[in-house]
Amino acid sequence: MNDDREQGTTLDPKWGADGLITGVVTDAATGELLMVAHLNEEALRLTLETGEAHFWSRSRGRLWKKGETSGNVLRVVEARIDCDQDSLWLRVEPAGPACHTGARSCFYRKVDAEGTLSRSA
User: Fold this and answer.
1) What pLDDT is stored for residue 121 in this prediction?
2) Of the ranges 2-16, 24-38, 54-68, which one carries the lowest mean pLDDT score?
3) Do the annotations mark residue 99 as ligand-binding?
4) Strand, coil or helix: what is 117?
5) Residue 35 neighbours by CB distance under 10 Å
6) Is residue 4 a known part of a binding site?
7) Considering the entire predicted model, what is its pTM?
8) What residues does each domain of the chain span?
9) Is 35 helix (H, G, I), strand (E, B) or coil?
10) Is 86 annotated as contributing to ligand binding?
């Protein structure tokens, strides 16, 4: 156990082999899960410095600020790191839908026991 990383007061992210950590994003007012994305060192630094969520797009292979084209930025109210510092939880105030499809949350479909998807409320 790395006592300093797990019990200390210094931010020391445990980056994956790809240089990323997972970011879980929830609405600060409602607790609703909005999205899951990834952050590299620069995305984390910009998120903390600007107070607006930045991520690393694995599909585009580049840094992006959430809402850079849509205007649907995520203002960070609180950032928390998990016990071994390999996941980040961002509590945010969204300026619009969090999902690029226009849905409020990226988790807008339910999966049933047969693997069929349906839109949820």
Assistant:
1) 63
2) 2-16
3) yes
4) strand
5) 21
6) no
7) 0.91
8) 19-119
9) strand
10) yes
Q: Which fold has domain 19-119?
A: Ubiquitin-like (UB roll) (3.10.20)
Tokens of 114: 């047969």
Least confident of 2-6, 20-24, 30-34, 70-74: 2-6
pLDDT at residue 12, rounded to an integer: 95
Q: Do residues 66 and 54 make contact, with C-beta atoms less than 8 angstroms apart? A: yes
Q: Is 82 annotated as a binding residue?
A: yes
Residues 69 and 37: beta-carbon distance below 8 Å = no
In the numeric block, the tokens 């969090």 are attached to 98
> Which residue is listed with tokens 């349906």?
118
Coil vs helix vs strand at 33? strand
Helix, strand, coil distribution of the chain in percent, nearest 5: 10, 35, 50
Query: Mapping DSSP to helix (H, G, I), strand (E, B) and coil, where does residue 84 land?
Result: coil
For residue 112, say whether it is annotated as part of any ligand binding site. Answer: no
Between 7 and 92, the more confident residue is: 92
Percent of the chain at pLDDT above 90?
A: 90
Check: CB of residue 25 under 8 Å from CB of residue 87.
Answer: no
